[in-house]
Specification:
Elements: E1 5-10, E2 13-18, H1 29-44, E3 50-55, E4 59-61, H2 66-70, H3 76-96, E5 101-105, E6 108-110, H4 112-119, E7 122-126, E8 130-132, H5 146-154, H6 156-165, E9 168-170, H7 171-177, E10 182-184, H8 189-201, H9 205-217, H10 223-237, H11 241-252
Parallel strand pairs: 2-3, 3-5, 4-6, 5-7, 6-8, 7-10
Antiparallel strand pairs: 1-2, 8-9
Helix pairs in contact: 1-3, 3-4, 3-10, 5-6
């Protein structure tokens, strides 16, 4: 694979490791393109019966790469349009993959990283993992299907709490809310994830693929439609003074002073 992923196949299990540890595995265009390719290849490879997505270093994925946005010379909405185009393709391809996808969350999962984890069929977290919605704290709105996957998983009231207050959730908090299936010691994360992958890969992929289609259909308002609505939303607010203040405050490690109105 390229420079931003570590892809390893062991028997019928494929592990995709996000590999930008210096930026907490933040998603940039290169990683987005490589993830699209890796997921597409895994989906079409009949020898692969389960996929694990995890992160290198101390993070799962810290969200979109802020350096990409701050370094963009044109209108900010163009940068968000480019990156969300990759992210949303990844989310849809994971949901359409006719085999189980497991996220092994080894550390921080925030912003787009949170969305990526939620798109997977099963989620197993290290005790050291942390979850943060993150978007609204810098003046943005969620993307990557967060508003549909989290709301369906934990309900409107708790989702609104995460949206409005943006707390940091420890792994046990996420488990208690129903955001993850299991929490395990850090040293055991990958072996437990692989054991889970072995268990699900031994079952009927034909039945699973059709079951996954039915789960996707049960979302009602289509995932693709919701992703497009999120994409339009985040592109729109990326041009506001609140986002400019939010990202400046984040990079300067200070509390933002938002002044925008609805």
């Amino acid at each position: 694979m390229g420079n931003t992923l570590i892809v390893e196949k062991l028997g019928s299990i494929l592990t995709i490791g996000l590999n930008r540890p210096e930026s907490l595995n933040a998603l940039n265009v290169e990683m987005g393109d490589e993830l699209v390719t890796a997921i597409s290849n895994a989906s079409g490879d009949k020898s692969i019966r389960a996929v694990i997505i995890t992160g290198s270093g101390k993070a799962f994925c810290a969200g979109g790469d802020l350096q990409f946005f701050t370094g963009w010379k044109g209108p900010k909405h163009e940068a968000f349009g480019i990156l969300t185009n990759r992210l949303h393709r990844i989310i849809i391809d994971i949901r359409h993959m006719p085999k189980p996808v497991i996220s092994a969350i080894n550390g921080v999962a925030s912003g787009a990283g949170f969305s990526l984890a939620m798109a997977c069929d099963l989620r197993i977290a290290s005790i050291d993992a942390k979850f943060k919605q993150a978007y609204t704290s810098i003046g943005l709105v969620p993307d990557g299907g967060w508003t549909i996957s989290v709301a369906r998983q934990i309900g409107i009231a708790k989702t609104s709490e995460l949206l409005l207050l943006d707390p940091v959730l420890k792994a046990e908090d996420a488990f208690n809310l129903g955001l993850v299936n299991r929490v395990v010691p850090s040293i055991e994360l990958m072996e437990q994830a692989k054991e889970l992958a072995r268990q699900v890969s031994s079952k009927s992929l034909t039945a699973f693929a059709q079951g996954k289609v039915l789960i996707n259909q049960s979302l009602g308002f289509g995932l693709a439609d919701q992703l497009e609505a999120e994409r339009n939303g985040i592109m729109s607010v990326s041009e506001t003074s609140d986002f400019i203040e939010g990202i400046s405050a984040f990079l300067e490690k200070r509390v933002p002073e938002f002044k925008g109105t609805a």
